Known about the structure:
Blueprint: E1 3-9, E2 26-27, E3 30-31, H1 32-41, E4 47-52, H2 56-62, E5 68-72, H3 79-86, E6 94-99, H4 107-115, E7 121-127, E8 137-140, E9 146-150, H5 157-160, E10 165-173, H6 174-180, H7 198-204, E11 208-212, H8 226-246, E12 249-251, E13 257-265, E14 269-271, E15 275-283, E16 288-289, E17 294-296, E18 299-300, E19 305-306, E20 311-313, E21 316-317, E22 322-323, E23 328-329, E24 334-335, E25 340-343, E26 346-352, E27 357-360, E28 363-369, E29 374-375, E30 380-382, E31 392-394, E32 399-400, E33 405-407, E34 410-412, E35 417-418, E36 423-424, E37 433-434
Parallel strand pairs: 1-4, 1-6, 4-5, 7-11, 12-14, 13-15, 14-16, 15-17, 15-18, 16-19, 17-20, 18-21, 19-22, 20-23, 21-24, 22-25, 23-26, 24-26, 25-27, 26-28, 27-29, 28-31, 29-32, 30-33, 31-34, 32-35, 33-36, 35-37
Antiparallel strand pairs: 2-3, 6-10, 7-10, 8-9
The protein binds uridine-diphosphate-N-acetylglucosamine (UD1) and calcium ion.
Amino acid sequence: MSLAVVILAAGKGTRMKSELPKVLHPIAGRPMVQHVVEAAAALEPANTVIVYGHGGERVREQVSGERLRWAEQAEQLGTGHAVAQALPELEEDVVLVLYGDVPLIRPDTLRDFVATVNDHTLALMTLTPDDPSGYGRIVRNEQGAVVRIVEQKDASDEELRIAEINTGILACTRRFLNDSLPRLSNSNAQGEYYLTDLIAMAVDAGLTVAASQPAFAWEVDGVNDRLQLARLERVYQRVQADTLMREGVTLLDPARLDVRGRATVANDVVIDVNVILEGDVTIGTGVRVGPNCLIRNATLGAGTVVEAHSVIDGAVVGEHCQVGPFARLRPGTELAARAKVGNFVETKKSQIGEGSKVNHLSYIGDSRVGRNVNVGAGTITCNYDGVNKFQTTMKDGAFIGSNSALVAPVTIGENATVGAGSVVTKDVPDNGLAVARGQQRNVDNWPRPSKK
Ligand code: UD1
Ligand code: CA
């Protein structure tokens, strides 16, 4: 049977107190509704429809996925009305209803859930939380079968004592939705078209309501305010951390790693506290990452050590390299094996060859550095004339004395040497020496100025 997913995301999110539509508030750096879109996509539905309203254009711009369609709900008249807005976009056999503000639902849970739907069965996800207040309650008959849902605001005192609640997630045939949604009424305490009234209609139509629970209660936790957002962020991060540890990664404190993207981490990697892995990050065997590092869209080769307070962004680091402490590798940096980039060094769009060292206080931009090059402390590539950027080349075995300025475009030849403090504006030949600085002049027995 073909599957469609409807994601309700039209709500205002008043309690977020935000200009940003609620469903765009991020979990792990991505809009929460994007997490729902991805969980849905794992089921490979033929069609996914997002019902949007508040902040519509922004939601459409910031959410992406395959076979996504959009249905506008201009006025929020209730969850039943919201699903009805998606109906014209639906032609599949089975429809699964999810929520843009319930971001941590897992594909495994959804797969089992959807599998129970057929012409005679509607699937309903329920939960028995510690505190059921605020939620719709699941009313069962004496045989224990689900017969209807009563919303908190419509419930009698007796009904309010029911512990089992409606998570909101349900799945049924499109045909049943087609038949029942137009028959919803809004004569209830909130004057809304309740999706939950479908349950009693299903029972009237002779369908069975198959109630099931998620594997983890947090899968169906919703976000209404920033406290709940923060709580779910921690849940999400803990799940990532646990997964990494199971896969053979040592985390010195699993509560102090944040993964905001996709991290592929090999065995025996050790990650110290307060590390953020962002975007696509690949870390090879035996890598050690020191405390307080940000690693974004980067690859770290096996055996590499990243010392404390380093930022690695858009860089490819080879095997057995040493980075930091306090290094900043910017996009386009490529370190070959055994290269070293030390403290207070910034690199950008530069290849640094095997075994080369840039150990202290340097800026290396738009450069091609060969093998076994030694770049002395305080070396600056002057790559920018205020308008254009130019290349610097340091060939194999070059030695750049400390505090040198290499004014690009310029090439330092193979095994060439630059004297400390030089401002190099012309190419240096292979094996040559360039000294480009004021000559030292000594004055014997020079009297220091004294107070008059
Ligand atoms: C709903 C359920 C309730 C359940 C609870 C779980 C109904 C009538 N009640 O209640 O049984 O226990 O969720 O959290 O369904 N939305 C729209 N358009 C609308 C109304 C809502 O898109 O017109 C979206 C909201 O953005 C939100 C979701 O649907 O993501 C749920 O709406 P909300 O108003 O929070 O429903 P609850 O009153 O919490
Ligand atoms: Ca809600």
